[in-house]
Every structure is written in C-alpha cells, then in structure tokens.
Write a structure and sequence with these properties.
PH-domain like, PH-like_dom_sf, EC 3.1.4.11, 7-stranded antiparallel β-sheet, single chain, phosphatidylinositol-4,5-bisphosphate phospholipase C activity, alpha+beta, hydrolase
C-alpha cells in the first residue's frame, strides 16, 4: 500500500512531467502586447522556456532563480494592457517572480483553464524546491548542458 506522501509525490511528479511537454498560455509583458504561445519546462537544464506563436523559443529563467510564484493578476504587465487583462479571469492567471538582484523580473501568464493554472503554480513550486535541493554536481551538470545547447544553437 502506498502512503499519502508517496501518492502526493507521484501526482506532483506527473504534473511536473506534463509541464515538460508544455501548455498553451497567454504571456503578458510590459514591453510587448500579450501573446499566445506555449510555456514549458526543460528539466534537464532547469529552465522555463517560452515558445511564441512564430515558433521561436526563448529561455525565460532558471528554476533556481525563481523567488515566488503568485496566483492572480498583481503585476505591472497586466496593468500595462488593461483591455486584454480584463478578458482573462483572475483565477486563471499567475505571476512568476525571478532574478538574482533585489529588483525582480516578472513572467505574467494567463492559463487557458483554472486547473492548468493550478498545475503551473503547484508544479513550479515543486520544481523550484527541487532545484534548491539538488547537489552541486547536478547543478554543474545542468549548467554544462545549458552551455552545450548554447554552443549548438550558435553553430546553426
């Protein structure tokens, strides 16, 4: 028989795996109009990846640099585009605060469904705690894997 902790771990791990495949979301940015695209996790490097509607991918941040994941529309990104933000239900929105300096950057997202928003918040909180708990050797391996991918991309 499985204990409650094992069941919760298994469910959280399944959620994290689903985030690796990515989910369709709308990204709000202070500099650009809100854009539909796909947000996903690359676990082997520990990054959040944004794939825009044009198909271009962009590394947003490392999971290690995430300070907080907050539910709702409490960021300037949503305030910058009030008309588009009004169309999105507050319950489906979340904000990721990240950075290494005192002034944190934000990733403001509107999920397509309430359960997807909950999956993102719970999954990111789990993956952030996992990123902070990994040993130095794994962190070094992730860094080297990231650099390897960067070298591959610069060649192409």
């Amino acid at each position: 028989m499985c204990s409650l902790a094992e069941v919760l771990f298994e469910q959280t791990e399944i959620t994290a795996q689903e985030l690796e495949t990515g989910k369709a979301v709308k990204r709000f940015s202070h500099r650009h109009r809100p854009e539909n695209g796909k947000l996903k996790i690359r676990r082997e490097t520990g990054h959040i990846i944004w794939i825009g509607s044009t198909g271009t991918s962009e590394v947003i941040t490392s999971l290690f640099d995430i300070k907080e994941v907050r539910h709702g529309k409490g960021s300037k990104d949503f305030e910058k585009w009030p008309e588009e933000a009004r169309r999105e239900d507050r319950a489906r929105c979340f904000i990721v605060f990240y950075g290494k300096e005192f002034k944190l950057r934000t990733l403001s997202v509107a999920a397509l469904a309430l359960d997807e928003c909950t999956e993102w918040i719970n999954g990111l909180n789990y993956l952030v705690s996992e990123a902070h708990a990994i040993p130095y050797t794994v962190r070094l391996e992730r860094f080297l894997r990231t650099e390897f991918y960067n070298m591959e991309n610069h060649r192409n």
